[in-house]
């Protein structure tokens, strides 16, 4: 008799294939779940494989549009970043993947979900916090945290041996000396040779973007238009290409970023569980979009609101995404606040892309967002309605406090 | 009889030359003060000019070392930035200039200081708040805020006419359609044709850096070593150059940044007085240094301390610099807190500079800063003393709260 | 010929009566405006006086309901406080007063408004920032900042002399050795004998509340019910009184607070213009309401949201109120964020009022707000679905980072 | 053969006595550790009991002075509070208890420590994070989180049965329907009948303070003097008592608070592990001290520094204490920053204590702290060196931004 139905987040790789078979061995009925979030993957082959090794059903969900519209664009509105540098590509994908997995689990009567994440990383946290928030009574099997699993499979060789024993097809490619996670927003590299933080990654590691040195010698100029802080139109000034569909627009931005060598970073970051780890990331389209959005906020957001947003939304929003707290009361709260700030972030930004660099070349605001900048008033040449003597009073009033200051040493 | 002695911040240009003569006309004895903060300037010619038009004395102060050591390096430690993009080059120079001006004013018995800033910008605030904080009873003459001055000289032509009348030498160069402010850290461009935020600056505007397109085709690789968050050594891997003196090191970093097209930005920013204005900036060495410092903090700063520092020091420190509040109780407080965070930021960072882009290629920590990263422990392949089952408890405990969440819609 | 029509914020007292006459003397047509925000005042007598000394019209506006519903209750939702102690009574009244004044100015064709605030305080800032925000082209006459006024009237005696000369009725009461500002929310005392921060105010100063020593010997027990963070019902358990109308409810809370000696504070605060000043305040109803609201948030707000709200809304909201920035983009933003946090702050709080102290004696949540607290789960006696071993994993995971800590000394 | 030596945090009560015997039963050699942090306790009787039931040694450490000087006074400097109300009495005691336990464990060669905390509360976290931070390789036995223990002892009756079986003396007092934790700073009540958040605690629960109704009818007036934000002298104006020793001073403040009914609170709080729980607390001396310290900061701290401190130190410091993160890099950082803010917090505060209420009646600053307040300058009657017209410029400059504001609805 079955112990129950498990919906396993399945990748088609060695780990989750072994987990699939192992779960069956433990007495579970296993259904496989694959999310298309824009990674390069042969979904059909994986499906065939899953079925061949015992999965009762396989679900392949195209989540790319939800990923772009619900996760990526709000992160752009927030200028979200983790520890100043990381654009959160993996973190952003997890909520849509987990949500869809839970929806299917409910629909298919699975009271258990499972995944192949290790017990040291952030992803286990991100998946499981989402599972529990969306379906509080869900059961989770995380084999890599179960002694009966990780002690049985202490290394890759033992997994291969198990696969051979169980008739799981093993692709005999040379394993890369790092692990990756790819989606429409980014690809990450970690572990293996990257664990030495001083080791420069080999050039053949980078997959999504060309090296700046190999990018075209001619800059590419584009215009990105935003409505309420979300991109609604991209125009390539070099060749006239125009894209407006939210998903297509982002894919096209990726194309531009990839061929111009944009979006590589290499950092040591603080994982939620308290370890430091080294990661390399390529986020081509997201890097461009974030630069453009920050620029447009300069023109269209009131300075005080911008400051409050930077401190009170951008930073905590980035952290909660990183820590897997997307499905939470605080995310709802922050997103609600964020949206309000974006209602006048309307306009367009001109950018130049060239060999790894992004240069802002001008911007324009539309609607109420245009009211904050007054060319004549800001002019150093024209008086524009301001009485210069007022500034003297402003300064002397601020100085009242400073005149009382006694330096401490 | 003289109304008193004025120490005028003098640049040698049309404005401050006219102010100098005008102040004499008002009955003041005028001494001229020039700060060498690394700008390109013919100080000797300016001195001759000042004396020739009536200055009693001229002081030329080389403040470059104090600028680098006391202002620039702490700003690097703080990762200070204003509104996400601006590296604060002008803001950083003002405190050293104002402090030296006040010191000379005191020494020379001037009870008045004067400057040529306009009544709409940030610099009047920065200079005067510093004056008042350092010498509470100082008197300030800001002619561009005085109706008797600005109504008499409503435009450049009236200044030229006055200069001609008073025998002030006028250099007949075509005025640039923008104004600039240069120092060792950066150059700024604003006003004139830049006042249209959509107008792309002409290529001949940029002065400090080559365009990325004109930078060398071969990347330049360097290593920057830090002690307590301040750079102490730079090594050029391409040619073996090594520089260690704080001032020379920064000048050399500028050389590297300039020739590799690094550090141009173009923004619309929120001035302290509440206006939006558009500025373009080149900060070659500072841009490199900031990227390297942020990277090293990733390896050497505890994650929680880093977060507290980002929110509670970096952001307010950048704002107070921008707003001219360097000589203030809050700056002392923030700097004191900042220094504590930096005591283990020891190590070196490898960077690649190439056509406008900076790529981090690895880093290494020294001393206590090295304790936070443990290669084996972070490894996804090795267990490293951690019990994977603990992470399950961590996750489920965090989920307690999330399981109670009711989405609002 | 008239210089224009001025709408003067008029109190009936010596200062604004002299200002009224002085404005007429300067050639203005003057209309008088009085706001009823709950202060003790003979509005009719003041009206007669204003008309008798030359006002063309007098407007008396009852703003008490708007004050309570639009300003006081959101401040309660925000738990707004300035510098830990001051409940912002004066700050809260200014926006409704200024808004109504501007509305009447527009309706009556006045292009100038005027007030009797001094040039050192916060109120000039609060009134005028509101004026300018609501009607950017308004002209403001602030006589106490105009040399032609303040030099002519250097002290109270010169005002009295002017009043006698101009036939302005002067009430010959002994001037109190402090000045006050009263409204429905509070009364403030400052200046005069209070300027020595060590001087204990005399007992006869306090006007709104009885001294705790003189309050009843029997505690009064009440229940306050909240919906979305705003009070909707108050019940007096001692005598069965029930009040539900928002304005009546607040007036009744004041009655309770006043007779039980609640809400006196005595502080030194930092004015917006940078001076420190000493103020004493009585805020009877507001003090009770704030305590009750904070308590109910403990039960009904998610812990993380509560923390974000405390830091990112409560504190900046209190500061912007104090600084007169109610009519601003940042207030709109903060209020929008605030409202979202309050949607489940539904329930009731039991309180005991006794001789100056407020004691919370229990609380209850209604609706979704009740989901966060689970009696059984929190119980130390019952296991309630939690696996105790999870907490061990939680702790050991948090300890990963701490185990790397090297104390600095 | 012994499994090792355990140092058990022992209270003398039923739980830890059973744990002591149970640990011996498991094969450990057990040493008992008791911390005197000011709680009412018969330490000698407990020592005799521990030895009688098998403890090899018993250590009773008087930590009261370290508790007051190292934990309580810095918390006063920080104005530390959790969720607006809770003064952190239990949190503050844990670090000194844990540190001493670890010191003894090291000295006595114990490689294991143990405690009797439950698996749902905060104290397990606080103790163990301290243990791991101070001695990373320590082993911790938390019986109430071990199934072999908590399943064997599902309730109080099973513990009593075990005690009887093992000859552990059981005091047959009626168990109170709540649990308490007491120390020099406070006493806490939770669980049992308090688990219903609407239930008013019975009057006989409160132990440390008299009810306000039973406090003396005559107010007690005191003066507290501070140096660098720490109390150095207390003077009772009623009877002339003066206390200056740090520990004695705090004990005397407790006496004053206790007899005047000061310091009771009743809240629902957010535990670190994500549960809400209800707690009642009495913190007599701490409540007085915090009010006095906040008041003195009003006079002696620059307004901007005070604001930065409130947001960036007080709030995170309170949270880290609550969450058991005292021995951490972030606490070192915050404490270092805190101390700098306190260097001019010198002066004295006059207070009135009466039936549960604290009234500030004046204050005075000493040394540099006195420079910020200038009686003449703040005066509304005197001009004091300020030019009133400056305030107009200040206001109109602030209004530049507001005049561009378009309300959103």
Automatic annotation (TrEMBL), chains A, B, C, D:
It comes from the Eukaryota. It is an enzyme of class 6 (ligase). GO terms for biological process: argininosuccinate metabolic process; L-arginine biosynthetic process; urea cycle. GO terms for cellular component: cytoplasm. Keywords: Amino-acid biosynthesis, Arginine biosynthesis, ATP-binding, Ligase, Nucleotide-binding. One of its GO terms (molecular function) is ATP binding. Its EC number is 6.3.4.5. Residues 178-404 form the Arginosuccinate synthase C-terminal domain. The keyword Ligase applies. The keyword Amino-acid biosynthesis applies. It holds the Pfam family Arginosuc_syn_C. Pathway: Amino-acid biosynthesis; L-arginine biosynthesis; L-arginine from L-ornithine and carbamoyl phosphate: step 2/3. Residues 5-169 form the Arginosuccinate synthase-like N-terminal domain. Gene3D superfamilies: Argininosuccinate synthetase, chain A, domain 2, HUPs. HAMAP family: Arg_succ_synth_type1 (MF_00005). Homotetramer. Belongs to the argininosuccinate synthase family. Type 1 subfamily. This is Argininosuccinate synthase.
């Amino acid at each position: 008799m079955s112990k129950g139905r498990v919906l396993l987040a399945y990748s088609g790789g060695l780990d989750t294939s072994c987990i699939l078979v192992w779960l069956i061995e433990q007495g579970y009925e296993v259904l496989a779940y694959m999310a298309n979030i824009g990674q390069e993957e042969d979904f059909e082959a994986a499906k065939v494989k899953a079925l061949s090794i015992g999965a009762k059903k396989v679900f392949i969900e195209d989540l790319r549009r939800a990923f772009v519209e619900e996760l990526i664009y709000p992160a752009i509105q927030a200028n979200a970043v983790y520890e100043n540098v990381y654009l959160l590509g993996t973190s952003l994908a997890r909520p849509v993947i987990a949500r869809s997995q839970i929806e299917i689990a409910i629909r298919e009567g699975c009271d258990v979900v499972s995944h192949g994440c290790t017990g040291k990383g952030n992803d286990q946290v991100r998946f499981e916090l989402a599972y529990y928030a969306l379906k509080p009574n869900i059961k989770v099997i995380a084999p890599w945290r179960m002694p009966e699993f990780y002690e049985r499979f202490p290394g890759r060789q033992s997994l291969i041996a198990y696969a051979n024993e169980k008739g799981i097809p093993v692709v005999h490619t040379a394993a890369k000396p790092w692990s990756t996670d790819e989606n429409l927003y980014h690809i990450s590299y970690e572990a293996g040779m990257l664990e030495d933080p001083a080791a420069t990654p080999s050039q053949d590691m980078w997959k999504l973007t060309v090296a700046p040195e190999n990018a075209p010698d001619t800059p590419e100029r584009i215009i990105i238009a935003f409505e309420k802080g979300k991109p609604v139109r991209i125009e390539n000034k070099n060749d006239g290409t125009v894209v407006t569909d939210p998903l297509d627009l982002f894919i096209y931005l990726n194309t531009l970023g990839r061929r111009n060598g944009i979006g590589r970073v290499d950092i040591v970051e603080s994982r939620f569980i308290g370890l430091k780890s080294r990661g390399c990331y390529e986020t081509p389209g997201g890097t461009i979009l974030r630069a453009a959005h920050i620029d447009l906020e300069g023109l269209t957001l009131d300075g005080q609101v911008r400051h409050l947003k930077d401190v009170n939304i951008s930073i905590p929003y980035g952290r909660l995404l990183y820590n897997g707290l997307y499905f939470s009361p605080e995310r709802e709260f922050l997103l609600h606040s964020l949206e309000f700030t974006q209602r006048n972030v309307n306009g367009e930004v001109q950018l130049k892309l060239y060999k790894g660099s992004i240069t802002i070349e001008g911007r324009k605001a539309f609607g109420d967002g245009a009211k904050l900048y007054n060319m004549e008033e800001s002019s150093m040449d024209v008086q524009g309605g301001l009485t210069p003597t007022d500034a003297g009073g402003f300064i002397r009033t601020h100085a009242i406090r400073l005149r009382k200051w006694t330096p401490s040493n």
